[in-house]
Structure formats: C-alpha cells, structure tokens
Amino acid sequence: ASPLAMKCNACFGSSDTYAVDVEAVEASKHVQHPHGDCSTAAHEAVLRLAAGTLGTVQNLEPLQVNWSPHPAGIRQVSRGDVVKCHWSEFHAVGDVVKAVRGLKYTGANGIVVEKYMRGKITGLYPLSVGWRPTFTGQVSAADIVKCKPTEFRVVGDTVKATRDLRYAYGETDTLVQENMLGRITSLDPLCVQWPTVNGQVSAADIVKCDSSEFRDVGNVVKATRDLKYAYGATDTLVEKGTLGKITSLYPLSVAWPTYTGQVSAGDIVKCTSSEFLLVGNVVKATCDLTYPQEGAILESGCSLM
Length: 305
Prior knowledge:
The chain is mainly beta. 2% of the residues lie in helices and 42% in strands. It has one helix spanning 22-27, and strands spanning 4-8, 18-19, 43-49, 54-59, 64-66, 74-76, 82-84, 96-99, 103-105, 111-113, 118-124, 127-132, 135-138, 144-146, 158-161, 165-169, 172-176, 181-187, 190-193, 198-200, 206-208, 220-223, 227-231, 234-238, 243-249, 252-255, 260-262, 268-270, 282-285, 289-292. A hairpin with a 5-residue loop joins β9 (103-105) and β10 (111-113).
C-alpha cells in the first residue's frame, strides 16, 4: 500500500482509506473522491505506518518513537503500539556481521569477501560493511547475518578465566583463579584486566560472559524484595519488582525512582532486555498506525488501515 492515503470521515467507515497521488495532496488537500464530489466530507491526508516497521525510542515520557526514514518521523505512541526488538531483528552502525556467501567486488580491484568473514556495519543507507581496515563495500540485507555476542570479541567485553592463570612479575606470582571475571583491554595481543593484574591470555584461556553473569554501572535491575531505606525522620520503601539503574559497584548502589541507595547482591536481579525500554532502543510497531501528515496520531492506540 502507498504510505500516503486519504481518509474521508463523512462517508467512509472509520478505517477505510483510498490511495492518492502524493503530488496531488501536496498541491491541494481536496482531491478527487472515489464516490464523486463530497463537499461535506472532511478530507484529511494521513500517513500509514505498517505493523513491523522499526523505529528508535526518542523519549520515554511521553513515549515517542523516531520512525525515520519513514515520512511519519517522530511520533507519540502508546506502550501497546510498540514492542522492543531482539538484537537479531535490526542492523545498526557498529554491529558485527558475517557474510553468508562469498562476495566479489568487481569495481574494487576484484576484492573477494569469503563466506563467514566478519566485518562491521559502517552505514545503513546504503547498507555498507567494513570488511577490512582498508576496504568497505555495499551489501544487501541477504548478504550478511548479525553475529551472536559469543561469536566475537571487542575491547571492553567481560570475560571469565577457563582455568587458573599464573602471572610472574619479578619475584612474585599473581594467580587468577578459574571463573574469575575480567575485561578485555586489547585484542592484538589479547589482554585482560583482571582484578589484580592486566595480563596477556590465549583465546582458550577465556570465554565471553553472558550478560546475565555480570553487573555494570548503568545496568537496569529490579528489586527481588521490598527494600526500606531510613532517611532522616522518614522511610522510603522500594517495592519488590521496582526497576532501577546501578550507579556504583563498590559499594553496590542503585538509583530507584524515588531514592538512590546501597543494596546487597541478593536484593537485585539484572533485568532481561525485554523488561525495560530506554532512549535509543529499537522497537517495532505491533499493528498498523495512521498519522495525519502534520501532527498527532489520529486514533488512540492501534488503527488498522
């Protein structure tokens, strides 16, 4: 269907529309009606946004989504109009991808990208991938697949030791025990900052952690029980299930909606991605939405067209 349609509120049903020529609408709000002249009808140009269209959260209160490059642009939505996307459902600049087939760029000195070669997305319009430090090429969405987080390493990744590691510095040895967590500081050579030492490792010495295995400042968590904070003469209650953000690891502290306070590890659990929305999150429309060309949504909530 055309993204631009006309809606006659007088003689059509509440969800009926008919396609019109875009240039005609730009020239005049009143265009040829399929039922002939309808002088009493209020003709209004509307934009149709199909279910499944992807957008980026622009604001939380009120909830607004940037649907660009769709002409709807930034619009207010209700919570039921959108659902947060899984990481595999969208592409973003910086994503690590791999080729699903061999690719040959004839206009670039015959450069060949072998199947399963990894690269980073450098642009979305057009879709482009940096396959090598010196070469970036355009691809179609069918040429690539987004890599799972466990398929690659980047500086800053949290990893854990797969065995005891011993580092000798002068006359002293530093032991990194199996399952100890650290953070990658370099890829070539591969180095990890452990709690007590920054040391070189082999690929077999470490494994990338799942996001549920560690906490970091900024992580969204929820209270596993009611928490009471005494502040002066008043108490502040954080109810079980309330969401907050980690503000510090040492000591472990969380910014709740009404109070920032220390917690124990057992007081909180890290939220899964589907449990919260943040500015910048990618979402998709759960149903068809219609917007007037100029402003707010025509109907509250979902509006099938």
